[in-house]
Amino acid sequence: MDYTEYLGRWTLILGDVNTGKTSLSRAILEEMCRHRLAGRIAIIDLAPEIPDEVLLNRGLKGIGGRLLPPSEEDVIYLSTQLVAPRVSSSNEAQAIEKAKLNAPKIEALFKHYQEIKRDILFINDISLSLQAESAEKLIDFLQIAKTVIANGYYGIKLKSGEVSRWERQQMDSLKKFFHQIISTRNNLSPSPSDLPQSSWRAQS
Alpha-carbon distance 140 to 76, whole Å? Predict the structure, then answer.
């Protein structure tokens, strides 16, 4: 892997659950650390807390994987306790409410990142930040980063609904701000037109 292909650029890694998004991000992270860039790197990890029994009941795996820094490296790691609105909810109203509760916690992480001012930023599960907010608001938090490597859900395995439609709409908007898109999706994943546009936006 040539880590220089990612320096000075914004890279967005998209795919369905369990398609290697976090693994690819980790490989890039480890390669940069091997080349002594750890002191420039921050990670915002938005992977939600999902009990094993919830995943088992829904027949899912590969959700919620953490993007942990290599041991003994000077990487700043930012995370908070978040829930997975779709997976942990029995109806759409619950999912919307949980997305709203996640939003201020996520915003606090991005504000913290702005304070530490490291120029290489990894974001794990960036799609979670777009379930109750807009892509434009998120981009405002990222402007100090010269290099961004972010991964996010862009698939069909998780149940649809207003949260999913809003998230997909904002992910499509987010792509416009990135220099390169890497897809880990399979051929069963829909194009953006397969999901109707949503006018819903949660207010945190």
Answer: 20
Task: Name the nearest CA neighbour of 201 among 147, 148, 165.
Answer: 165
Report, as ranges of residue numbers, the positions in the chain whose pLDDT lies below 50.
187-204
Residues 6+ apart with CB under 8 A from 56: none
Residue type, 158: L
Residue 25 confidence (pLDDT) = 96
Of residues 120, 126, 111, 119, the one with CA closest to residue 175? 126
- The structure tokens 């490597």 sit at 149
**Cα dihedral: 198, 199, 203, 204 (round 10):** 30
As a dihedral over the C-alpha atoms of residue 160, residue 187, residue 64, residue 96, rounded to 10 degrees, the angle is -20
The torsion angle over the Cα atoms of residues 99, 55, 20 and 190, rounded to 10 degrees, is -60
Alpha-carbon gap, residue 149 to 121, rounded angstroms? 6
Q: How far apart are the first and last CA of the chain?
A: 40
- Bridge partners of residue 77, in order along the sequence: 43
Instruction: For residue 65, give the DSSP letter.
Output: -
